[in-house]
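note to self: dont lose this again. the chain is below, predicted strucutre after it. 86 aa total, dont forget to put it in the shared folder this time
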Amino acid sequence: MDFNETGAILKALGHPHRLEIVHNLMTNECNVNDMVRRLGIPQSTVSQHLRILMDRGIISPRKEGVVTCYRIVDERVKRLIEMLKG
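---
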């Protein structure tokens, strides 16, 4: 186990909004506007959280025309979220 990498992933997931974003992405990909509505926070804040999750390799963007959808790409994070839902 790479403790530095694992620690960085856990740190990224340590914020409640980022954890909720990842949790929501477990069931369906969604775009920034969907996340703004669900979380009730400004678009700029959602974008900052998404940037942190992307920088850690947890999520990845995918273009659908003019809309960017996000999905979880780190299988470890998917397993971790499933365990936390327990």
